[in-house]
């Protein structure tokens, strides 16, 4: 196996695993904002317990997701030095903004939210969660700005063999950005909604004492997932127009624009296969199939009336079985988007063989094995912890637990010695 193939496999593994954490993070934090807002406005303790329960799962996923993100960032310098050297001045700008502005602020807000229970006023504590959500969305935005530039390089010029940023606004108005960002965000909402509905279904099937709590979260999860799948489908199909315009080769090479572009690349870069592998179309097809299947979630919404969704019980089993589907669809979507621009790292600008680091296949294989084991361990640890804490129910989650009050004897002042 050659270095390039190993590097591509490593990036595919790390990017796919990391995005699974991102989807849960974006989806759950949105629902958490709604739950805690309802608690602050109504004062209903049910919403406080739900916020603590789902917030605890969110924190677990967030902490382990950070580690996967750091692992993925290392690759740009280790495995793709040609990318960093040639387009780092442009591609690195949104990544730096994401790290310095969005990620650091998000972590700060989240830490204050975690340790602010029973120490801050409710309104201030809620504002911190809004800060977490807004910075999480800002982080996703800047990551998509960077990725969209690789899909459609704009606002740059090449001087002395290096790409330099000349128009920052062009990055923000990239045709490859808008609909893709909406598609990613709505897919995350779908993931969070189905995760909430699936875990709630499991507790309701077990007839746990917290029936009323999980009945509420089941209804929130089903409605969120149903609304999100419509957005997923809308933003997904809306991408075909702008993506086809800026990447004529992505969906095949039979159009005049695609053939003209391939002829131009052949002149500039020499003969080669400039059409994406079949894997891109396969991933796209199965993702669309899953999207249409999950559209049936709307059939469950009427069953929320008079709790028929719980009385019939089989819809609860269906919701549990559908939990993995948005994760699978998310990976397939990234395969379609990333593999669909091959053989380019930056579409029409930098071929992948010129972007990979000049290291030996043995060293790259060692890196692939080590990173894969690390990411696999983090993913397994995440799901084990999520399953363990989800199974404990919402009786008394550790997050937001009131501080223990001292006993009466302990509260007495100690006698003074004279």
Notes on the structure:
A hairpin with a 3-residue loop joins strand 3 and strand 4. The longest helix has 40 residues. The C terminus is likely disordered. The chain is 73% helix and 3% strand. A two-stranded antiparallel ribbon has the order 1-2. Strands 3-4 form a two-stranded antiparallel ribbon. The chain is mainly α and 418 residues long. It has one domain. The protein contains 16 helices and 4 strands.
Write the layout of secondary structure elements.
Blueprint: H1 3-42, H2 45-78, H3 81-115, H4 122-151, E1 156-159, E2 162-165, H5 168-172, H6 178-205, H7 211-238, H8 240-246, H9 256-269, H10 278-294, H11 308-311, H12 314-322, H13 324-339, E3 344-346, E4 350-351, H14 352-355, H15 361-391, H16 408-411
Antiparallel strand pairs: 1-2, 3-4
Helix pairs in contact: 1-2, 1-4, 1-6, 1-13, 1-15, 2-3, 2-15, 3-4, 6-7, 6-12, 7-10, 10-13
Main location: membrane
GO molecular function: electron transfer activity; heme binding; metal ion binding; oxidoreductase activity, acting on diphenols and related substances as donors, oxygen as acceptor
Pfam families: Cyt_bd_oxida_I (PF01654)
Structure characteristics:
single chain; 418 residues; mainly alpha; two-stranded antiparallel sheet; two-stranded antiparallel ribbon; 4 strands; 3% strand; globular; disordered C terminus
């Amino acid at each position: 196996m050659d270095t390039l193939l190993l590097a591509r496999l490593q990036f595919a593994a790390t990017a796919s695993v990391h995005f699974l954490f991102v989807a849960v993070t974006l989806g759950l934090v949105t629902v958490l904002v709604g739950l805690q807002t309802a608690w602050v406005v109504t004062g209903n303790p049910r919403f406080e317990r739900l916020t603590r329960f789902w917030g605890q799962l969110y924190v677990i996923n967030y902490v382990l997701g950070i580690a996967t993100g750091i692992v993925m960032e290392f690759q740009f310098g280790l495995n793709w030095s040609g990318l960093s050297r040639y387009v780092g001045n442009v591609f690195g700008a949104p990544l730096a903004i994401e790290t310095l502005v969005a990620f650091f602020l998000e972590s700060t807000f989240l830490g204050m939210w975690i340790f602010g229970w029973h120490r801050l006023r409710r309104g201030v504590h809620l504002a911190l969660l809004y800060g977490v959500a807004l910075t999480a969305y800002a982080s996703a935005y800047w990551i998509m700005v960077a990725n969209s530039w690789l899909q459609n390089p704009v606002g740059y010029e090449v001087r002395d063999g290096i790409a330099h940023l000349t128009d920052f606004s062009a990055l923000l108005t990239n045709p490859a950005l808008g609909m893709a960002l909406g598609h990613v965000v709505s897919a995350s909402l779908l993931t969070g909604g189905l995760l909430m509905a699936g875990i709630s279904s499991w507790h309701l099937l077990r007839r746990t004492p917290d029936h009323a709590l999980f009945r509420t979260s089941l209804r929130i999860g089903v409605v969120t997932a149903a609304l999100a799948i419509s957005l997923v489908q809308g933003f997904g199909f809306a991408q075909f127009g702008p993506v086809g315009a800026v990447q004529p080769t992505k969906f095949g090479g039979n159009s005049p624009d695609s053939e003209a572009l391939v002829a131009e690349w052949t002149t500039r870069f020499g003969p080669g296969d400039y059409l994406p592998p079949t894997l891109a179309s396969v991933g796209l097809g199965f993702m669309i199939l899953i999207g249409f299947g999950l559209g049936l979630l709307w059939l469950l919404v009427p069953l929320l009336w008079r709790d028929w969704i719980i009385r019939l019980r089989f819809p609860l089993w269906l919701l549990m079985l559908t939990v993995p589907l948005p994760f699978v669809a998310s990976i397939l979507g990234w395969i379609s988007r990333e593999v669909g621009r091959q053989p380019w790292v930056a579409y029409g600008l930098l071929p992948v063989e010129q972007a990979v680091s000049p290291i030996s296949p043995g060293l790259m294989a060692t890196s692939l094995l080590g990173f894969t084991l690390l990411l696999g361990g983090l993913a397994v640890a995440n799901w084990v912890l999520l399953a363990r804490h989800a199974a404990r129910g919402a009786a008394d989650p550790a997050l937001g637990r009131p501080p223990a009050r001292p006993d009466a004897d302990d509260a007495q002042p100690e006698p003074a010695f004279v």
